[in-house]
Every structure is written in C-alpha cells, then in structure tokens.
Design goal:
alpha/beta; Rossmann fold; Hypothetical protein af1432; 2 domains; 19 helices; binds fe (ii) ion
C-alpha cells in the first residue's frame, strides 16, 4: 500500500493549515529499486514512469537488444518488458533473459499483447507476471511490481532464525489470504489470525521482535509491513503494561486486523503512488467502518478487536473518524491501537516521504497527545519504545 496513514494525514493537514507544504514537496522519493523498462510506445513509457517513479530508479529503453544487453551488464531488481519493441520482440527478449542463469529468477513484468498472452510461451514462470500491454492500468502495475519486489525480499527470510521466519511466513499467508478475500474473514481465518498473533507475542517475549521489525522496515509491501509492525508494537505495549496474557494476544490481533478495511478499498486509491486528493481521502477514510462491517458478523472475532478496528482513527477531541467519538466514548484498545498506528505510520518508509526517526515521531506524538492521542498511553508507549 502506498498511501499515508493517520499521523501523516494529521501532519499534512497541519502543514496545509500553516501553508507550509514545502517540506512535503521537497522530500526525496525513496527510489531504491533499480528497474529496467523496455517499452517502445512513448505513451506507455510516460504512464509507466508516472506509476513507478516513486518505487525505483528507472532505466528506459525502446528496443530488445538494449534490454538484453543492459540486463547482462548491470544489476536490476526488476525488468518490465513490452511485446512491442524495436529490433527484437518482447517475447524473444524475455526468453533470452531467462536463458541466462543469473537472470533466471529475476522478477519480470511482461506487458504482453493478445498474441503473446495467448501463446503460453512464458507459462509456468513464477517470477514473471503478465499484464495486458494496453491500456496500462497504473494501479495494477504498481501493485504487481510491489508484489514481485516483495517476493524477492521474502526469499531473504530463509536466512532468519526459525521463529522469526515462521512468524513472518504465517503473517504473509494470513495477509495474502485476507487480501484475496478483500478483507472478508471467516472463523477459520480467525484461527490463522490467532496463531499469527501468538507467534508475534512469543517473539516479543523472547526479545526478538526488534530484529523482525528491522527486516520488515525495507519491505516493499507497505500495508503488510505496517500491519505486522502495529501488531508487534501493540504486543510489546501490552507486555510492558503488564496486562493479562489474554489481553496481549487481543492487542496483537487488533494490530493485525486494524486496517483490514483497506483491503476493500479500490486498488487505484490504495496503491496510488502519490498523495491522495480530497475525493480519494474520503474513500480511504471509509476503511475503519468497512473493517468493522467485515468483522462484526464473525463471532470468533473478539468484540474489543472490532471496536479497535472501527475506532482506531477516532481522536480524543472528537475530530477523528468515522464516528467523531470523544474521550471516554472511545474503547481503550482503540486508543492503544491509535498510538501504535501513528508511531508506525510516522516512522514508516513511504515512497514520497522520508522515514522519520523515532525521536522525531515522539515529538509529533507529544504534540498530538491530549488532543488526538490519549496522553497516559502516549507517554507510556514512548517510554516502552525508547527503552
Ligand atoms: Fe487505519
Ligand atoms: Fe494503520
């Protein structure tokens, strides 16, 4: 997911109020992935650059030979090839890349014409995703590129200690399943939520959760990484507050599910590689209500978790959403979730904002404390996270 969350939204609104959005505009794009684009059509090149500029450094060529030569000479994280190229067909370029052992596993997005799509020439290649060459659906393209880049990162999980690897793989399975179901959750899925939450709580108890978060920090699938981070932060918070074990698990489950409603938000809004406009924000702000609607009919979901999902964007002064609830009208688990959520959003790496240090985040959270965030929870959270 590429969008801003609670705290970033607050920050943006504050900046806009102060007529000082320069900081936002001058923030460097976090172009960390190296992407080779082999596409002839200028229109397609423009659309691709617009969609992917935030995700990586793009090298653009319009012919197949250059594509194959550059892929051999340099190192890329992903290659995007269209059927229509000069001097070599895209399909031949793809097959030539795959013939080289070093490039056999490289993520490829193949923007294929109808003939190539029907030919089956690249069938069975699990590191290649086929998309129609036109029209180029930018949101879909961003989503697919993120998925492929994330899959490469996830291969590195193999080297992690067993418990961390197991927790991350379980979390990934859960998230993919929920994403496929657009946030719909069954009693059986809740079993997976419970076991994933339990494995995160175990890591917290063993002191290994910090390493897990470091692994996730650079992860390309930001919604997934954010969800796990909030779940871990809430579990750490619960352990530090010395709440009963059952409540630590509930907090971790609330973290895993708090943004489940986003999975029902249309992709062009969810993965828009730029700040959202007012209309898109209105859609995005539906996610707490949507999440609660999805979870409420499932009896296995604890009621406090539903409350946390529905109310994690409420604010003490009543300026939050969706209900505009005030103070004690907001459930405690929702108030705790809001604190962890804001911290995670502020320190998260997003394509068009730099990642804040924890100290910078604490400063903003202290400003939000009392008005937006519950002051006692905020102070305690800062103590716990900075310890
Ligand atoms: Fe949220
Ligand atoms: Fe969130």
């Amino acid at each position: 997911m590429i969008h801003v969350d609670a705290a970033v939204e607050v920050r943006r609104q504050e900046q806009m109020t102060a007529e000082n959005s320069d900081e936002e505009r001058s923030m460097p794009a976090l172009a960390h992935a190296k992407i080779l684009v082999a596409v002839r059509s200028r229109r397609a090149q423009t659309a691709i650059a617009r969609a992917l500029a935030y995700l990586g450094d793009l090298t653009v060529v319009d012919d197949g030979w250059s594509c194959v030569r550059l892929a051999h000479e340099r190192s890329f994280d992903l290659i995007l090839v269209a059927s229509d190229l000069t001097n070599m067909k895209g399909r031949e370029a793809v097959l030539s890349l795959r013939g080289e052992s070093r490039l056999a596993q490289l993520p490829i997005v193949f923007l294929a014409d109808a003939r190539d799509r029907a030919s089956g020439a690249v069938a069975g290649d699990r590191r290649l995703i086929l998309l129609p060459d036109e029209p180029i659906e930018e949101a879909k393209l961003v989503y697919v590129v993120m998925k492929l880049l994330a899959a490469s990162e996830e291969e590195a999980w193999q080297a992690l200690p067993e418990r961390q690897r197991i927790a991350l793989v379980a979390a990934r399975q859960l998230y993919d399943r929920l994403a496929r179901q657009r946030g719909h959750l069954s009693g059986e899925d809740m079993e997976l939520v419970r076991s994933t939450a339990a494995s995160l709580v175990r890591l917290v108890h063993e002191g290994d959760a910090g390493e897990l978060l470091t692994t996730l920090h650079a992860h390309d699938d930001a919604t997934f990484a954010h969800t796990i981070e909030v779940a871990v932060l809430l579990a750490r918070f619960g352990v530090a507050l010395d709440v009963p074990a059952v409540d630590v698990h509930i907090l971790s489950q609330a973290g895993l599910l708090h943004d489940i409603g986003k999975l029902a938000i249309p992709l062009p809004v969810l993965v828009k590689p730029a700040p959202l406009d007012a209309r898109e924000w209105a859609i995005m702000r539906r996610h707490p209500g949507l999440g609660a609607e999805l979870l409420r009919p499932v009896p296995e979901v604890p009621r406090t978790v539903v409350a946390a999902v529905e109310s994690h964007h409420e604010r003490l002064d009543g300026s939050g959403y969706p209900g505009g609830l005030k103070g004690s009208e907001i459930d405690d688990v929702a108030l705790l979730t809001a604190v962890a959520d804001v911290f995670a959003a502020l320190t998260d790496r997003r394509p068009y904002k730099r990642s804040m240090s924890p100290d910078e985040a604490f400063k903003i959270m202290r400003e939000m404390s009392g008005r937006h965030l519950e002051p006692g929870f905020t102070d305690r959270f800062i103590e716990v996270v900075s310890a």
